[in-house]
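> call design_seq(struct)
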């Protein structure tokens, strides 16, 4: 009887070794990835929420919140386009990387929208999405206007003071909440010829120069006049800040 038990034990061990060996012959398929690393800067230096910056009018400001949607992220190879991600919500006070699983491919440019495209923006119930979706009630993280039935594309918020005096307290707040179909913008970037085989990865560093929001040479923002918009409350300012914000993106 003891001999039979021992033999059965060794039979089980041999089976385990056999199946483990078979598993080694079929390793998991390596993932192919594109990483988009967004790097916030101000005047060419890393953005800091503890820093006080000066705009073109000599006014001092601090940046306390930056949120924005990216949508319809594509790679392009001639007339062929591959959708990588439908929508993603960023909070960008420090570098953030969006890692995307892709199929092996060759491309020469990539594009994405800043904001939410019209087909997904208006007359859409965010409760239809799973909580993990950035367009859902939970996933939108306060970036949906129920009263305006649409998404906030971009938020830039902080504090400022107008005298420019050193160490003066920043007592006043500015808030740019941008979101309406006419404010949706699509950006294109030439990447050069990129070929990704199975298991390859490629990182693209994209600078987001936040100083452009305030100090864009063709349209600097005077915070003594223009410090608040919820889009419909001041659409001209919302359009100006949107144009300044999208000009901040640079592929490095």
């Amino acid at each position: 009887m003891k001999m039979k038990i021992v033999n059965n034990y060794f039979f089980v061990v041999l089976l385990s070794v056999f199946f483990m060996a078979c598993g080694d012959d079929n390793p998991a398929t390596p993932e192919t990835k594109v990483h988009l690393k967004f790097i916030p800067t101000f005047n060419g230096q890393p953005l800091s929420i503890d820093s006080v910056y000066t705009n073109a009018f000599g006014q001092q400001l601090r940046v306390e919140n930056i949120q924005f949607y990216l949508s319809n992220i594509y790679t392009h190879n001639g007339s062929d386009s591959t959708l990588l991600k439908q929508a993603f919500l960023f909070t960008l006070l420090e570098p953030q990387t969006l890692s995307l699983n892709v199929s092996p491919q060759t491309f020469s440019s990539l594009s994405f929208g800043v904001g939410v495209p019209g087909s997904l923006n208006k007359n859409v119930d965010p409760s239809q999405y799973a909580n993990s979706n950035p367009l859902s009630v939970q996933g939108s993280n306060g970036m949906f206007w129920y009263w305006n039935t649409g998404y906030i594309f971009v938020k830039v918020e902080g504090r400022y003071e107008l005298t420019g005096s050193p160490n003066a307290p920043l007592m006043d707040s500015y808030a740019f909440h941008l979101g309406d179909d006419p404010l949706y913008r699509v950006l294109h970037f030439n990447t050069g010829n990129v070929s990704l085989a199975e298991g390859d990865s490629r990182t693209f560093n994209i600078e987001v120069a936040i100083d452009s929001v305030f100090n864009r040479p063709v349209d600097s923002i005077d915070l003594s006049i223009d410090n608040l918009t919820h889009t419909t409350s001041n659409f001209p300012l919302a359009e100006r800040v949107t144009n300044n914000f999208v000009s901040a993106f640079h592929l490095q």
